[in-house]
Amino acid sequence: MCAACQFGKATRKAWRTKAQVRGIKVVPRPGECVSVDQIESRIPGLLVQIKGRLTNARYGVATIFVDHYSRLGYVHLQASTSSKDTLTAKRAFEVFARDHGVTIKHYHADNGRFIDNAWKGALDAENQGITYCGVNAHWQNGVAERRIRDLKEQARTMLLHAQHHWPDAIETSLWPYALRYACAIFNDAPTLKGQNKDCTPLELFTGTKVLAEVRNHHTFGCPVYVLETALQENKSLPAWMSRARVGINIGISPTHARSVSLVLSLKTGLASPQFHTKHDDLFETTQRKKGGYRMPRSQWQSISGFTKPQAIVPPMDRDAEADSERRQRAGTQQQGSNGNHRATTTLAHVGDAEQLAAADGGETPLPAEKQPQGH
Length: 375
What we know:
CATH class of the largest domain: Alpha Beta
Distance between the termini: 107 Å
CATH topology of the largest domain: Nucleotidyltransferase, domain 5
Mean pLDDT: 83
Strand content: 15-25%
Oligomer: single chain
Largest sheet: 5 strands, mixed
Number of strands: 10
Structural class: alpha+beta
Radius of gyration: 34 Å
CATH superfamily of the largest domain: Ribonuclease H-like superfamily/Ribonuclease H
Low-confidence stretches: 343-350
Order of helices and strands: HEEEHEHEHHHEHEEEEHH
């Protein structure tokens, strides 16, 4: 081996070859092996609250867990990639697994944050194993990498679709909930091939028959009409008051029944788990058409600190403002035309004076404003 050649001709090693490709290690039951990886976003994500004063904290990272046996995914949202936040994600996933009767025995991860002493110490405390992929050899963690790609594509598509139909209310800062909702959809979608065909990842993970409630999956970011609180409590309202308010659908509540939607308020920026709802999955009520219903102005962006507050122009004053602008433009044009007329008249008078002076053989008289002042 020539050392000079190694230094001068080094390239990436090909990992796709004509040799027989070994499949991913097959595990017999859920929890035997779980791949884990993290997504970082440069755009800060909204951290919703149920009540209280809105916080300035933001989501910037999501830790993704994928079970090798069932392909069930779990998304934990966090502020940073610190060891503290990552260990919180690990504990949250293991609590979720225990609630479904599954014990996590082994993890497979990249290097990065998962080689920290804090992570290794937590594994030793739970008697769990771990294996790593090579440095910059991310395909060796292909289960988690592929799931991250699928979740990002699905979340980006849902956000763009909602922004196209309701640009006043939907912002990219909702990406954490689009990502989590995409994961919920994957967990409820049946497998299309293999020995577990027609079974959902949630069924394989829990070992029980869990029907996918398709009717509870609604379009992300669509308008949600929530029944007024008094009517939900079986009380009455004045006869001519509105019986519902509108909010934004940001997915299924992870801590309630699957029939409960998490609704973001347009006015307060708070989220609430709601059951008495109607979803506009096709964004029919947000279409700007003549005679259509005017949706309430979305204020959650400014209240939560993502945008600066904008002055609200009353709808009845917009036409008057447009008329005022047209009158101002017309007045400016009229002033310009009058000025041109005065200039033309002055030049005409000066020309006539020059012609008279030439005929008399005298000098051309100066205009009044240019004549010398007397002492």
